[in-house]
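User: Show me a protein chain along with its predicted structure.
Assistant: Here is one chain, sequence first, then structure tokens.
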Amino acid sequence: MHIANPIYDVAFKYLLEDNKVAKIFLSAIIGETITELEFGAQERTLEIEQKSKEGAPLTVCRFDFSAKVQTDTGFKTIGIELQKAKLQSDIMRFRRYLGLHYQDKANTYSVNRKKTKKNPDGIQEKARQIYCIYFLEYGMDLPARPVLKVNYKVEDAYNGEELSAKGEFIEGLNHRSWIVQINQLKKKRRNDLEKLLAVFDQSTMTDSSRHILDVDDETFPEEYKEIIRRLRKVMEDPKKRREMELEDDIVNELKAMERRAEVAEAKAKNAEEKAKNAEEKAKNAEAKAKNAEAKAKIELAHKLLKRGISKEEVMDMTDLSIEEIEKII
């Protein structure tokens, strides 16, 4: 079955705009059952003027969700931050945005407490736990696995014993992360999550267009078939297909800009290294010149003293100190 390639932001965004599909997709990644899901703010668009085409916005895929998750003891509400990176320079953007995410009041919730003089309303603000999901479209210095889960550990600093500590302080100040490495999605699927993420496998790209993937929908578990159908709708929409073409142009320009920046940085480093070497050579040459000058003064002073010229006169003629002249004597 042919589907739109979700590596494209326009297809990925369309996929997650469906609440039912988003719940299935995110539940599979975090390994927990999401019963309710609300969309938060999406990423602002970045205007990039095209020389050959009219100016068009590039939406960097960044989603915020508020999710109600089923637990063994009931339910909990978490914040989910999902980002998809096309360029390695996006890492710094991840850091900046995560910091803003922690400060955002939307990632808090209120609980009722006993009314007191200090808290007459009886309402206390609590920090909501944050889950982070990253989709990387490029290779990184990470283990070669399709999906990596990064989870905090609590250990006794004395002996390294791992402790099963949870609660407001730990979960409010630490976050779990899932990293999906698209270039590591291979034919072999080890579990249902990897079967689901096969929709990102770029080796299934058709010969006619990189916008289209040819997937075997029979290999997908039944609960994930809705995701396949959603991506097929994108492929059948001419407007979405044009947006994918435009995205190609913009991303290629961004990658070219990144390459030019890397080349310029390398040239600057080489120039800086050459300048340092030249400065070191100049210092060495200066030191040699000073040594040669000092040696010449000493030789001249030695000859003058042999001719019976007084120390004071030699000192005036060579600029040597009286101590240096006495050493010669």
